[in-house]
Amino acid sequence: MAIASIEKMITQLARLPGVGRKTAQRYAFFLLGVPEEQALELADAIIGARKSVHPCPVCGTYTDLEKCEICADPKRTDAVICVVGDPRDVMAMEKTREFTGRYHVLNGSLSPMNGIGPADLKINELMQRCEGGTVKEVILATNPDVEGEATAAYIAKLLKAKGVTATRIAHGVPIGGNLEYTDEVTLAKALEGRRVL
After folding, report:
1. How many CA atoms, within 13 angstroms, populate the side-chain half-sphere of residue 162?
2. What is the reported pTM?
3. In the chain, where are the structural domains located?
């Protein structure tokens, strides 16, 4: 016997990354078993975040402020920008407590097979940020997979034409891995061992 409202809940939960149907079913029954106020708090948190969180107009990471805290921090240097593929990668890099510059989120990687070209990413915005001579180095911290490497190489070529040094994080991060799942020590070592492209 299928109950339509539970089935709908399971279907929606199964759409989350890494959540299969059985896990979604466990989550659904767990949520049905908690006190109503706890379930409503979760729903309110999701709705509140969806309404208030937006990309930072400068770097593209998520914020609920006019500008993210990193872009608004006067103590951070404008001379170095760390380029990442996704807002989650900013959080991963910040855990290292090693980087004191600014960020730029591309919102993906070049992937011709999937129809993602330079115009689909925030590459033009990065190039605009590099105008004027303030930016001296751009650290390319895209994922160390085929798409991330291609994206880094493409951006490095554009930066070279502007006279900006492009560096690549070292391969302490496993090939084929994602920054958000990499531990802080590995990311810190990857930052230390970055190289010029």
Report:
1. 22
2. 0.80
3. 4-52, 55-196
Question: Taking Cα atoms as reference points, which of 161, 114, 112, 166 lies closest to residue 142?
Answer: 166
CATH number of 4-52: 1.10.8.420
CATH number given to 55-196:
3.40.1360.10
Query: DSSP secondary structure string, the chain?
Result: ---HHHHHHHHHHTTSTT--HHHHHHHHHHHHHS-HHHHHHHHHHHHHHHHH-EE-TTT--EESSSS-HHHH-TTS-SSEEEEESSHHHHHHHHTTS---SEEEE-SS--BGGGTB-GGGTTHHHHHHHTTTS---EEEE---SSHHHHHHHHHHHHHHHHHT-EEEE--TTSPTT--GGGS-HHHHHHHHHT-EE-
Residue range 17-58, pLDDT digits in tens:
999 999 999 999 999 999 999 999 999 999 999 999 999 999
